[in-house]
Amino acid sequence: MAASLETNKALAALLTAGIIASGSGVISRILYHPSMPEENAYVIEVAEVETGDGEAAEAAAPLPVLLAAASPEEGEGVARKCAACHSFEQGGENKIGPALWGVVGRDIAAAEGFAYSDALLAKEGEWTLEGLNAFIQNPRGWAPGTKMAFAGIQNPEELADVLVYLNSLAEEPAPLPEPSAEEAAAAAEHFGFPVALKIESTQITHKSDVGGVALNLTGPAEVDAAFRRIKTAVATKTPRAEISGVLVQPMAAEGIEMILGIKRDPLFGPVIVCGFGGILVELLKDVAIGIPPISPERALELLKELRGWPLLAGLRGKPPADVDGLCAAIVSVSNLAMSLGEQLLALDINPLLVHENNYGVVAVDALVQIA
Ligand code: HEC
Questions:
Q1: What's the predicted TM-score (pTM) here?
Q2: What CATH number has the domain bearing residue 244?
Q3: For residue 51, what are the domain limits?
Q4: What CA–CA distances, in Å, run from 208 to 9, 53, 166, 221, 276?
Q5: Residue of 78, 86, 161 with the most ligand 1 atoms within 8 Å of its CB, for mutation
Q6: Residues 77-104: pLDDT tens digits?
Q7: Is residue 173 included in any domain, yes or no?
Q8: 25: pLDDT confidence band, cut at 50, 70 and 90?
Q9: Are residues 329 and 355 in contact, defined by beta-carbon separation less than 8 angstroms?
């Protein structure tokens, strides 16, 4: 029983995440209509995914992402904690601590007339946002022996707010670092939004289970954030998996929600059920039933039996849905029913998103029951 449940999960995950399992032509054809244009997918090489132990990966999002989301106004609020010892305004005085106007890009321990500790004087170079991040998070950890008697700010978002505030304290503030997922956003822009991101790894079958999938991203910022999220999540949950990249794909149109499945009829054996999904399935109970084997022509006939057929054919100037893709999916499911025979008790793909013509169909969620 445990074994069959495992199989269910595996199959469901395959269908869910849209993974093309090696050697299983049947399932891959359910997922993507073969005519889905090749150039509509774009793999971004991931140079390096942090594959440290879970603890390290559990840590905050990368700094550039935190900074991109941070607010200097919030940071100014948080910096009241520092105001007893520091001035922030232009031309401000040293207090218990050095004046902080223009600190980003300034040499470490370089405020005029301030008597720094040896700990800070020993540090080379200028203050970068990374350096400030490390110091303010844990002053004595980063610079043992520092005179700054302050426990540090542990909350990464709060700290990022302070950092962008400090960065703003200049006549010409330097731009914040670009998250490297910029590339993903550029690829997305190339297709037009919305897009989907998927981790590329032959070793990860349950891509959505490990947080390796993000759907319906509507802008560059969302793509950026999702790219980071996916990398971190995958590195945390499957630290040993080899990652070849992140796949960027257009979501095409939103898609029409359909259901597609196999049920076992006491009289006929396995039957294929196809109809409109989502709220429509409740409302219309609009489903067609066919007995396998089902040819592409028969699949089309079944679809035309549906009262909602005009929705697929393209209603009121709307582009037609990928009916060929849907027919191919029906045929694949029919073949699956034939090849698995008695083993397969039920299959329920719900929803099956049918995109605009030529953009294929995607199984968003699926449930498989195996004897
Ligand atoms: C209790 C007083 C105190 C508080 C509170 C305090 N600091 Fe400091 N800070 C210091 C002192 C003293 C130094 C000099 C440290 C040294 O020489 O080792 C310092 C140094 C610094 C430096 C290095 C500046 C340079 O010129 O190299 C930065 C940046 C800084 N503090 C930021 C902050 C921020 C941001 C906060 C609030 C979140 C804060 N500090 C809170 C006392 C304080």
A1: 0.47
A2: 3.30.1490.20
A3: 40-58+179-250
A4: 12, 21, 38, 21, 24
A5: 86
A6: 999 999 999 999 999 999 999 999 999 9
A7: no
A8: very low
A9: no
